[in-house]
């Protein structure tokens, strides 16, 4: 189990792990590289390909533990890691069951939905300038992940994301910082889980999707589910990207628990 874009394991993953553990499932929860308790440099850099490979390294580690049955391995991912869990399940047949929650499926298609046309060229120009800067030996540029822009509605995606992160910072005193390397946004455009979805089968797949998700757009996730082959199941939550962790936590965690118990007997 690993979290989404920049999030730390203490931001709700501990609650999911506890639910799974009460059903007799061992849960290996970790921070993605370059973030939180994990090592790796440059700090605050999010590389989805490296994160996907780290899932597979985590499986290898879990299988080495004496208390783990190496033939009963499931993967769970959410948001940014939700799509990565699909790729891992498609590539690694050690995975016997997968849960993909509010999954981020395509960096390019998401950009087309959330970024106005007039801003795209400027965005690409910024990424290309960063490549030149890094090639010249400069340190990575850092940019904010989200903003609490008071001029926008309280439920606007940026403010909703900011509120989600800050709630954990305030409640748990986490050392989460609102920044990411600019190159991480370049890497995000390379992120494509859709081509792998049809290859997950015959591994049992559960997708938990929010019906009003603009962070990991609902329509893209639903298309991914349509492309998946059996055995598969969908759980549709009413709300935005964050209801799986908050208002609908009991349903999202319970559905995942039951799926693992059913398919990792």
Describe this structure in words.
It is a single chain. This protein has 265 residues and is α/β, with parallel strands linked by helices. The protein has helices at 13-22, 48-64, 80-91, 107-114, 117-135, 157-172, 182-188, 194-197, 218-227, 249-263, and strands at residues 73-78, 95-101, 142-143, 180-181, 205-210, 232-237. The chain has one domain (13-133, 185-263): Alpha/Beta hydrolase fold, catalytic domain (Rossmann fold). The protein is built from ten helices and six strands. The strands form two sheets. It has a four-stranded parallel beta sheet, sandwiched between helices. A two-stranded antiparallel sheet has the order 3-4.
Question: What's the short version?
Answer:
By secondary structure, the chain is α/β, with parallel strands linked by helices. Helices cover 45% and strands 11% of the residues.
Give structural attributes.
265 residues, alpha/beta, Rossmann fold, 4-stranded parallel sheet, 10 helices, 11% strand, globular
């Amino acid at each position: 189990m690993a979290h989404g874009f920049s999030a730390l394991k203490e931001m709700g993953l501990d609650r999911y792990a506890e639910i799974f553990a009460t059903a007799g499932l061992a849960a290996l929860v970790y921070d993605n590289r370059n973030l939180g308790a994990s090592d790796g440099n440059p700090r605050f850099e999010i590389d989805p390909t490296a994160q996907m490979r780290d899932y597979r390294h985590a499986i290898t580690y879990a299988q080495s533990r004496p208390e783990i049955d190496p033939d009963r391995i499931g993967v769970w991912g959410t948001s940014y890691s939700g799509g990565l869990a699909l790729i891992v399940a498609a590539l690694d047949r050690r995975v016997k069951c997968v849960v993909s929650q509010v999954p981020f499926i395509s960096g390019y298609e998401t950009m087309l939905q959330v970024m106005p046309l007039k801003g795209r060229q400027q965005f690409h120009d910024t990424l290309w300038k960063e490549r030149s800067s890094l090639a010249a030996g400069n340190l990575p540029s850092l940019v904010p992940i989200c903003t609490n822009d008071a001029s926008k509605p309280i439920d606007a995606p940026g403010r909703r994301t900011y509120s989600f992160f800050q709630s954990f910072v305030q409640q748990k005193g986490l050392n989460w910082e609102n920044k990411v390397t600019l190159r991480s946004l370049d890497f995000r455009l390379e992120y494509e889980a859709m081509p792998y979805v049809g290859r997950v089968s015959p591994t049992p797949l559960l997708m938990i999707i929010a019906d009003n998700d603009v962070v990991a757009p609902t329509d893209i996730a639903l298309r991914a589910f349509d492309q998946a082959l059996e055995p598969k199941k969908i759980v549709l939550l009413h709300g935005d990207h964050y209801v799986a962790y908050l208002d609908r936590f009991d349903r999202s965690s319970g559905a995942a628990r039951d799926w693992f118990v059913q398919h990792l007997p």
